[in-house]
Specification:
- The protein contains 3 helices and 9 strands, in the order E-H-E-E-E-H-E-E-E-H-E-E.
- By secondary structure, the protein is an alpha+beta fold.
- The chain has one domain: Molybdopterin biosynthesis MoaE subunit (Aldehyde Oxidoreductase, domain 3, Alpha-Beta Complex).
- Strands 3, 4, 6, 8 and 9 form a 5-stranded antiparallel beta sheet that branches.
- Helix 2 (56-73) packs antiparallel against helix 3 (104-121).
- The longest helix has 18 residues, at 56-73.
Length: 145
């Protein structure tokens, strides 16, 4: 049996349908997909795009920890996570998380936990590029252990 890679940091565009398919299973009665995109405004300024920098190996390990914790807390059947790094433009998908469980409430809770943990624990830094030519590093949450 081939084991699917369920957590991935990538430069390539993310196809949310593939993330959802990676978490899908006939035993699941519910699947939840979260898709994060680059928005056109931040703090009232027009965004041109942004860049993500990442400590890739550590980030993928942390995503594995997030998956393990989600499976410990909820009866997860399938889970898949993908986060972009590099240069992204407005409208592009930056992150996608899919979780399937026997029941929808568990799938919603496990998916919410997973995206929140990704945002709070991954060693990833975001710089916004604005239409006026300025750039700024986004202040994030301190990385949790």
């Amino acid at each position: 049996m081939k084991v699917k890679k369920t957590a991935m940091i990538t430069r390539r565009p993310i196809d949310p349908s593939k993330v959802l398919a990676a978490a899908a299973d006939d035993a699941a009665g519910g699947a939840v997909l979260f898709v994060g995109t680059i928005r056109k405004k931040s703090d009232g300024k027009r965004v041109r795009g942004l860049s993500y920098e990442v400590y890739r190996e550590m980030a993928e390990r942390k995503m594995g920890d997030i998956e393990a914790e989600a499976r410990r807390r909820w009866p997860v059947i399938g889970i898949a996570m993908s986060h972009r790094y590099g240069e992204l433009e407005v409208g592009e998908v930056s992150v996608a998380v899919a979780v399937s469980c026997e029941h929808r409430a568990d799938a919603f809770e496990a998916c919410r936990y997973s995206i929140d943990a990704i945002k709070g624990t991954l060693p990833m830094w975001k710089k916004e590029r604005f239409a006026d030519g300025t750039e700024t590093w986004v202040k994030g949450a301190p990385i949790e252990g």
